[in-house]
Amino acid sequence: MLKTLNISHSFDYELFKDVNLEVDKKEKIAIIGSSGSGKSTLLHILSTFLKPQSGEVFYEDKEIYSLKEKELIEIRRKEFGIIFQFHYLFNTFTALENLKAAALLAGTEIDENLLERLKIKDVINQNIQTLSGGQQQRVSIARVLTKRPKIIFADEPTGNLDKENANEVIDVLFEYCDEKNAALITVTHDLEIAKKFDKKFILKDKRLISWE
Ligand SMILES: Nc1ncnc2c1ncn2[C@@H]1O[C@H](COP(=O)(O)OP(=O)(O)O)[C@@H](O)[C@H]1O
Ligand SMILES: [Mg+2]
Q: pLDDT (tens digit, 9 = 90+) per residue, 6-49?
């Protein structure tokens, strides 16, 4: 589904070199690494936001950074679901309005069951800015899943959550993948969370290494 070929990238210094990663349908992958190792940068590269200095990223056999801007945006909009470390919800709108906007753009319906699973049903008519950090994070996850993406990219999706809620959110993401044949690539510094994934990698000494 998604595959990289020898990705390398530097900012002020070289972050990583010759990263090769392959992700299939239903597969759940966790990437760990210390702060500053380049995890977020790698996720941006995988998810259409940053062209690597060298190497290629293939989505269903198409090299995404060779596509026309319009095609790239279509993939980002329709096929990929991206959960950033800092959510991008519309702050002056309610949670429900945010979900409705996502459903409208993607031509999907809001899944009531999802709202229940993410424990946001009772706060759905509140403005985003009146919700706690954890609630906002769960709304942003609901928003991304409402799009029905084929691959989910998540940067520290449980960063603002306590242990119980973190586990629950990961379970919701896993269930979504199993039901919809979707893949999940998550960046996390939480080893307990990483352990739940099918495949685990660590970004260390500029390399992406398989980790058990
Ligand atoms: N757009 C950018 N311009 C310059 N340096 C950046 C940029 N994005 C990230 N960096 C630097 O790259 C390094 C890795 O950042 P990041 O990918 O966010 O790591 P991680 O997510 O593992 O903490 C950091 O030193 C950061 O300052
Ligand atoms: Mg990061």
A: 999 999 999 999 999 999 999 999 999 999 999 999 999 999 99
Tell me the DSSP string of 56-82: EEEETTEEGGGS-HHHHHHHHHHTEEE
Q: Which residues are registered as beta bridge partners of 63?
A: 58
Spatial separation of the C-alpha atoms in residues 92 and 47, rounded to whole Å: 27
Say if ligand 1 is within 6 A of residue 149 CB: no
Ligand 1 close to Cβ of residue 37 (< 6 A): yes
Q: Is the CB–ligand 1 distance for residue 35 below 6 Å?
A: yes
Ligand nearest to the CA of 33: 1
Atom of ligand 1 nearest to the CA of 42: 17
Find the ligand nearest to 36 CA: 1
Instruction: Provide CB contacts within 8 A for 61, sequence distance 6+.
Output: none
Architecture of the CATH domain 2-210: 3-Layer(aba) Sandwich (3.40)
* Cα 167 to Cα 101: distance, rounded to the nearest angstrom: 27
Ligand nearest to the CA of 157: 2
pTM of the model: 0.94
Question: Does the pLDDT value for residue 75 go beyond 80?
Answer: yes
> How does pLDDT run across 101-155, given as a tens digit for each residue?
999 989 999 999 999 999 999 999 999 999 998 899 999 999 999 999 999 999 9
Q: Which of 7, 8, 9, 11 to mutate to test the pocket of ligand 1 (most atoms within 8 A of CB)?
A: 11
